[in-house]
Write a structure and sequence with these properties.
- The complex is a heterodimer of chains A (72) and B (398).
- In chain A, 21% of the residues lie in helices and 14% in strands.
- Chain A has 72 residues and is of the alpha+beta class.
- In chain A, strand 2 and strand 3 form a beta hairpin.
- The longest helix of chain A is centred in the first third of the chain and has 5 residues, at 3-7.
- Chain B is built from ten helices and 16 strands.
- In chain B, strands 1, 2, 6, 7, 8, 9, 15 and 16 form an eight-stranded mixed beta sheet that branches.
- In chain B, helix 1 packs parallel to helix 3 (95-108) and helix 1 (14-25) packs parallel to helix 6 (288-308).
- The chains are: A alpha+beta (72), B alpha/beta (398).
- At the A-B interface, helix 2 and helix 3 of A face strand 10 and strand 14 of B.
Chain lengths: 72, 398
């Protein structure tokens, strides 16, 4: 697995329904919605420090990452 | 879109459109910025409200109403059902018509509705606020004297003003809903609510009918409890079992904030309304009435502030006081009850339902049920019990 994947979450833009749950829960403001899709700013993301709130809250599982304990 | 307005409202749902309507009615230059291509769609809402709630703000055209609801039915995993007859006129509305109707009234009053206008940043200075907007794909800048943030569950605009609106997964309901037909419901005028840790952990599943045949069938699950099963999976599982003959017309996802509302939904030249301020009933997930009430008052306060040329935080304080008295106070006991209900297991839930069933339906109300919950959970302090009974005297219609 590429080192990059361990640091970042993956987004399935086709599964994403733009509801905003992930945006509302991100403490780093690493996710935003525009007219077209969900934008991920990996520099702000804390996934490598065990945050996976966005993965947890998505009603359709559009965000994924390597498994670790969910931070609530 | 011009580059300067007295009042800029960000977000075109019911809260934002009401803000724009009242500001425009006050005679100040007003813009409503909506990211999507039209007002009202997609509908991320179960669509239940009441004529009384809507009539507080405008006269209700029957075209907005899809169905009348006479009863709420609460069902626990043991299949015990409590019927609660509703007073007043509860209804299922068509949000796509309602939202567009309010925006149309705002436009007729002089507000400029700008669609495909995505606010991407904001800079606050002493006398104004500059908003960066991507409008029809072009970067633009709009100046406002006062900004009203009505951007719903995401609530990013308030964060740009230095107000923390981030939701913990414990305080967020992860939601999904189908528009379904071929349901053949027993009663087209009853809303059904299903509870249970295997059905909708930390939330509930609803069937809100528009006819005997068609309904909003949806679910809200506490987001901290969706590690292995998503909200959509819980919903699909239920539908497979209960409505195998049902057919889908549409599907949407959503998020319902059940956090405590913002302590201070305002600052200099700035107010937050509706879901963005977390003005959502923590027990029912209802948001329409609070969106309309807070939006309307914020628009009114904005208009007055512009005319008096006073935009500082203390000049807007009456907005915060209004929200505190009319919305936040009533939620306090409900937050505590929600936290308890989200922790109990299915057996305890069924037991509460059994007890509730013994209450005379004529005198039944959610506060009676709350009293029972609190009596059965002695770990609550005496202070809490006192504040509960004090609150009951001031209750609003939830």
């Amino acid at each position: 697995m590429k080192k990059n994947n361990l640091r970042n979450i993956q987004i399935n833009q086709l599964t994403c329904d733009s509801c905003g749950c992930c945006v509302s829960t991100c403490p780093q403001e690493a996710l935003t919605l525009n007219e077209k899709n969900l934008v991920y700013v990996k520099e702000r993301c804390n996934y490598r420090n065990k945050c996976n709130r966005c993965i947890l809250v998505c009603p359709v599982g559009a965000l994924k990452g390597e498994n670790h304990e969910p931070q609530v | 879109m011009n580059h300067k307005y007295d009042v800029v409202v960000i977000g075109g749902g019911p809260a934002g459109a009401m803000s724009a309507l009242r500001a425009a009615q006050a005679g100040v230059s007003t813009a409503l910025l909506e990211r999507d291509r039209e007002i009202g769609l997609p509908v991320r809402c179960a669509e239940m409200t009441s004529i009384e709630v809507l009539s507080r703000h405008f006269s209700v055209d029957e075209k907005l109403v899809a169905n009348n609801i006479k009863t709420n039915k609460y069902i626990t995993p043991d299949n015990l059902t409590i019927n609660l007859p509703l007073t007043g006129r509860s209804v299922i509305v068509e949000r796509k018509f309602l939202d567009a109707y309010i925006a149309a009234q705002a436009a007729k009053s002089g507000a400029e509705i700008v669609t495909r206008a995505d606010a991407v940043g904001m800079k606050m200075s002493e006398k104004k606020i500059d908003i960066d907007v991507v409008h029809q794909g072009e970067q633009k800048r709009v100046e406002a004297n006062i900004v009203i943030a009505a951007d719903g569950i995401e609530s990013r605009v308030a964060r740009w003003a230095g107000i923390d609106t981030c939701l913990s997964p414990i305080d967020l309901e992860s939601a999904a809903q189908y528009d379904m037909v071929n349901l053949n419901l027993d009663d087209p005028n009853s809303c059904l609510y299903y509870f249970g840790n295997n059905i909708a952990p930390g939330g509930y599943l609803w069937i809100f009918p528009k006819s005997r045949d068609r309904a909003n069938v949806g679910i809200a699950v506490q987001a901290s409890r969706t590690q292995n099963v998503t909200a959509k999976q819980y919903l699909d599982r239920f539908i497979e079992k209960h409505f195998p003959m049902g057919r889908y017309v549409g599907f949407v996802t959503g998020g319902v904030p059940v956090a405590r509302p913002l302590k201070e939904p305002f600052t200099d030249g700035f107010m937050v309304v509706g879901d963005a301020a977390r003005f959502v009933n923590p027990m029912t997930g209802e948001g329409i009435s609070y969106a309309l009430d807070s939006g309307s008052f914020a628009g009114k306060v904005a208009g007055e502030a512009i005319k008096k040329n006073k935009r500082e935080k203390k000049a807007l304080r009456k907005y915060s006081q209004f929200c505190n008295n009319e919305i936040v106070q009533g939620f306090k006991i409900l937050h505590k009850a929600r936290k308890i209900l989200q922790k109990i297991d299915d057996n305890e839930l069924c037991r509460i339902n059994e007890i509730a069933k013994k209450i005379d339906p004529q005198s039944f109300n959610p506060y009676e049920l709350l009293k029972i919950v609190i009596r059965n959970y002695p770990e609550l302090t005496l202070d809490l019990a006192k504040s509960f009974f004090k609150n009951q005297r001031r209750r609003n219609g939830g």
